[in-house]
Amino acid sequence: MKLPSMIKGWLNTATTPERLLEHYVSTGDNCHLVALVEQFNISIYHYLMSLSDKETAEDALQATWLKVMKVQSTTKQHTNVKSWLYTIARNTLIDELRRQQKWQWQTLEDHHLTGCSLSREFESTDRLALFNLAIMQLPFYQREVFIFQQEGFSILEICELTNENFETVKSRLRYARKNLKAMLGNHHE
């Protein structure tokens, strides 16, 4: 009897990110690391690109994987490898932005952009480009939690990733949505 491919994946626990990391650390065999990179590289790169420019994102991504390569043992923090990888990527990006002196502390008002001027300036662009531009105008912490939520993390997982309390994360998400709605005006539908 042949099992459907979806069920075969359930029986093969060696392919979970946690198992891959565990096998990589215990054996040092790069094939397990390659499998982790294949599974998470694009989504981590997308996350980093959403918070920075292409060059900074590429540097932070490379530094993230170099840090993963140096892991000597698995611990309790590795029970959710996806969250652990995003935490490394986040901290690496913040370090890189500080090194480049591009770390942003200003609020949305500091950008001197309103929903009307943003809409007028980009009337001819498509809605996705307008949405992406609006996201980039958000303050770093609002943009970060919004992107984490778009990547599929729950509020509790975002709290763990950012080392912030539940109410802070909820507040940042609320302000991010409010600011996006104000910037996009009628284009947000």
Automatic annotation (TrEMBL):
Key word Transcription regulation present: yes
All copies of domain RNA polymerase sigma factor 70 region 4 type, residue ranges: 133-180
Protein name: RNA polymerase subunit sigma-24
Protein family according to the UniProt entry: Belongs to the sigma-70 factor family. ECF subfamily.
Keywords for this protein: DNA-binding, Sigma factor, Transcription, Transcription regulation
InterPro entries from the UniProt entry: RNA_pol_sigma-70-like, RNA_pol_sigma-70_dom, RNA_pol_sigma70_r2, RNA_pol_sigma70_r4_t2, RNA_pol_sigma_r2, RNA_pol_sigma_r3/r4-like, WH-like_DNA-bd_sf
Domain spans labelled RNA polymerase sigma-70 region: 43-101
Cleaved signal peptide residues: none
